Amino acid sequence: MITPAPAGQGPAAPQLTDWTGTRHAPAPDARILSLVPSLTETLFALGLGDNIVGRTAFCIHPAEKVKTIKSVGGTKQLNWRKVDAARPTHAVLNVDENPKDMADDLAARGIVPVVTHPLAPADNGPLIRLLGGVFGREAAAEPLARRFEDALSAITAARPDTETRVLYLIWKAPWMSVGPDTYIARTLDLIAWRSWTSPEGARYPEIDLTDPVLDDVDRVLFSSEPFPFTDDHLAAFRADHPRHAAKAQLVDGEMLSWYGVRAIAGLSYVKALADRTAASRR
Q: How far apart are CA 136 and CA 83, in angstroms?
């Protein structure tokens, strides 16, 4: 993981200062390597499609536009020959999705790493402004950031009083979930859905789906990513755990875990989850 900034980095020029504390010079003509799927989508939304010279194989939105950008590998490992051929000046990374040695190797090649690490929904406004500021799209970034922040204020004000305990599954074999110190958990908390916490307090714990664990939650959420859970997985869970069958639910992982511009639609999705829960309790 990428090393965090020292405490107290201060508010100076937040639109140009990334998570490591590095203050970037504006680079409107940058050649961008986008190594985070949700940020690739955000860069396009900021009007930076022509600046993107490389992406990961997992960057899939916006579908028609992203197909025109060559892949240079995955989020964990790059094809350095393809990176060099793309001649990027900057690379956009994320602490949870890209390893620290990737950022170091990019910097050693003279490619400027712009490091992000949103930990809560409220971080999306500053994140959008950071990308807009560094790459010369402040005018496009500000209305998107404000649109998100207005929606966040509305959903925060309407937070339900009744808490729902959830187990959010992101992987199978082994089963893995998310702890409370994650972006996903904080997004769910907007509607008072409290994520199950492992005894060790891990951010992404491996778990056993035992009765004591399942007894402790009201819903078991099967996310569409990173593991592509489907209705077949819900059916298998219900067969294996009939006493907890009604708790199983598929959820859209992009809407709950992608930050940047996708989080705007994500807030509407979260509100719809809350509304359905409230209706089921009437």
A: 23
CA 253 to chain centre: 9
Beta strands 175-177; 164-171: pairing state: antiparallel
Q: Which two tokens stand for residue 274?
A: 């809350």
Residue 178, number of CB atoms within 10 A of its CB? 29
pLDDT tens profile 185-216: 999 999 999 999 988 889 999 999 999 999 99
pLDDT value of residue 12: 37
Residue 241 gets the label, from left (phi > 0), alpha (psi -120 to 50) or beta, of beta
Distances (CA, A) of 120 to 95, 155, 198: 14, 14, 20
Structural domains of the chain sorted by starting position, each given as residue range(s) with its CATH number in brackets: 32-154 (3.40.50.1980), 160-281 (3.40.50.1980)
* Predicted TM-score of the model (pTM): 0.91
Q: Residue 96 half-sphere exposure, CB side, CA atoms within 13 Å?
A: 16
Task: Give the length of the chain.
Answer: 282
> What is the C-alpha to C-alpha distance for residues 95 and 252, in angstroms, rounded to an integer?
22
Instruction: Determine the longest span between alpha carbons in the chain, in angstroms.
Output: 60
* Segment 84-126, tens digit of pLDDT: 999 999 999 999 999 999 999 999 999 999 999 999 999 999 9
Computed on alpha carbons and rounded to an integer, the radius of gyration of the chain in Å comes to 20
Pull the structure tokens for residue 9: 């980095």
Give the list of residues 6+ apart from residue 152 with CB closer than 8 angstroms, or none.
121, 122, 124, 125, 190, 267
Q: Measured between alpha carbons, how far is 128 from 135 in angstroms, rounded to an integer?
A: 11
Cis peptide upstream of residue 212 (ω within 30 degrees of 0): no
Q: What is the dihedral of CA 11, 15, 20, 22, to 10 degrees?
A: -100
